[in-house]
């Protein structure tokens, strides 16, 4: 009898746990904000100045598209965003900011003062693109679709930031908190979030809440930061003739052994546990087919949803490549190769609870506009403040588009104004309307 009772209790417990986990999973896929936040957003939307601002966004659609094209056609390659930054600065001044400046790192910052100034809320998009100097960034149009490298990621975000400021200014929306409208440099690739990293390292702006616009359709609520570690591994040797110096230590051969050693270990590690990835994205070196190279290098990207797992695969990589070099040098080759590991990226992980007011407001606003709301994890400017515990979120730029980071990138203005309205409503809600 006791055995049957115990089995029954275990069965009930299993059913209850299954139900709980099912509810949690459903909540993550279709997050619902608390009633108090839904009421707050509904109340804000009924305010005269906000209603006027939302209508102005519709009226500004031709200007928004014009701003998008203007900025897209100004190249902003990695570490060379200055020209676009200067133009973005001019546009923010024309939009009616109280003050606009460019900081030491090259970030563009515009201030609209609040009535109380006891809090600072920032709305951000990044200025840089992944495309190198010389890339043709001329915008072409086929039907209703705009084509150009960088037109979506993240130039559309910049155009949205400008329009939000214009609408707030024209409708005279007053918030208690100070508002900052920011264009950051160095978000992409080797930029390694240098713009936003500078902002929070200096802490001169005293930002309390951070809202980024970057990627994805309307309804994205990115409350979790995907951390990454990146290295350039450089193998060096004396180099020589492929025949005359045969037997001399070859950096390419050592690199090959390093890849084999690391991928063997990493494949086992990433096969279980919280999702973790690794990728060797670039390999180069050597001078000719009949020369033993004097240098060989590779670049690697490792990511994980877990800070601890990222730390472990990082250590695994460094240990694996070092062991491979030692094994190669001990294999009977003449002389030896050396290894230099150069850090080229370090993005922190982190996650904000769904109960965080900014995340709750993001969900409430997204649901208010009828978007397919979803919680996401990504690698964006919000990584830095999220890792510091500062309320931060990344929202989508809306419209329809594809081909990010490719020469064939395109964007279609399919209900694009709704995403701008969402950004405005979220910013105003977080900054609190002044009575």
Tally of helical segments: 12
Structural class: alpha+beta
The total domain count is: 2
Low-confidence stretches at least 5 residues in length (pLDDT < 50)?
A: 1-27
* CA-based gyration radius: 26 Å
| CATH class division of the largest domain | Alpha Beta
- Chain oligomer state: single chain
Which whole number gives the mean pLDDT?
A: 93
Largest sheet: 6 strands, mixed
Helical percentage: 40-55%
Find the CATH topology of the largest domain. Answer: Aminopeptidase
Residue fraction in strands: 15-25%
Q: How widely separated are the two ends?
A: 67 Å
How do the strands and helices of this protein lay out in sequence?
Layout: H1 2-29, H2 35-45, H3 48-59, H4 61-72, H5 82-95, E1 99-102, E2 108-112, E3 120-126, E4 140-142, E5 145-147, H6 155-170, E6 178-184, H7 194-202, E7 209-213, E8 220-225, E9 227-236, E10 240-241, H8 251-270, E11 276-285, E12 291-292, E13 295-304, H9 307-329, E14 338-347, E15 350-351, H10 357-368, E16 374-378, H11 383-387, E17 392-395, E18 400-402, E19 410-412, H12 416-431
Parallel strand pairs: 3-6, 3-7, 7-17, 8-16
Antiparallel strand pairs: 1-2, 2-6, 4-5, 5-19, 8-15, 9-13, 9-14, 10-12, 11-13, 18-19
Helix pairs in contact: 2-10, 2-12, 3-6, 3-12, 4-6, 5-6, 6-12, 8-9, 10-12
């Amino acid at each position: 009898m006791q055995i049957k009772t115990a089995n029954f209790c275990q069965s009930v417990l299993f059913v209850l746990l299954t139900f709980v986990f099912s509810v949690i999973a459903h909540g993550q896929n279709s997050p619902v904000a608390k009633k108090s936040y839904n009421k707050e957003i509904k109340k804000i939307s009924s305010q005269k100045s906000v209603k006027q601002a939302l209508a102005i966004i519709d009226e500004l659609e031709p200007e928004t598209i014009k701003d998008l094209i203007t900025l897209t056609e100004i190249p902003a390659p990695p570490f060379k965003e200055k020209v676009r930054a200067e133009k973005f600065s001019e546009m923010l001044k024309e939009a009616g900011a109280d003050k606009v400046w460019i900081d030491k790192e090259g970030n563009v910052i515009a201030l609209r003062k609040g009535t109380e100034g006891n809090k600072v809320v920032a709305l951000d998009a990044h200025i840089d693109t992944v495309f190198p100097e010389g890339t043709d960034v001329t915008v072409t149009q086929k039907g209703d679709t705009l084509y150009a490298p960088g037109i979506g990621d993240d130039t559309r975000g910049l155009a949205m930031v400008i329009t939000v400021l214009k609408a707030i200014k024209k409708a005279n929306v007053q918030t208690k908190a100070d508002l900052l409208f920011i264009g950051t440099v160095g978000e992409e690739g080797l930029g390694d979030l240098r713009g936003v990293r500078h902002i929070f390292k200096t802490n001169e702006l005293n930002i309390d809440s951070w809202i980024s616009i970057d990627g994805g359709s309307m309804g994205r609520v990115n409350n979790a930061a995907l951390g990454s570690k990146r290295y350039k591994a450089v193998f060096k040797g004396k180099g020589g003739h492929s025949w005359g110096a045969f037997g001399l230590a070859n950096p390419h051969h050592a690199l090959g052994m390093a890849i084999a050693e690391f991928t063997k270990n990493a494949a086992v590690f990433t096969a279980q546990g919280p999702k973790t990835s690794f990728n060797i994205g670039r390999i180069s070196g050597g001078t000719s087919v009949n020369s033993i190279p004097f240098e060989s290098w590779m670049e690697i990207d490792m990511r994980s949803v877990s800070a601890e797992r990222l730390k472990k695969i990082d250590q695994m990589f460094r240990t694996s490549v070092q062991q491979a070099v030692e094994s190669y040098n001990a294999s009977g080759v003449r002389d030896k190769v050396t290894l230099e590991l150069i850090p080229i990226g370090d993005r922190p992980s982190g996650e904000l609870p769904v109960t965080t007011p900014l995340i709750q407001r993001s969900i409430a606003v997204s649901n208010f506009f009828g978007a397919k709301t979803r919680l996401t994890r990504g690698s964006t400017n919000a990584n830095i403040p999220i890792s510091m515990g500062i309320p931060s979120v990344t929202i989508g730029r809306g419209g329809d588009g594809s081909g990010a980071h490719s020469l064939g990138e395109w964007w279609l203005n399919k209900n694009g104004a709704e995403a701008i309205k969402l950004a405005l409503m979220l910013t105003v809600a977080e900054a609190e309307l002044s009575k």
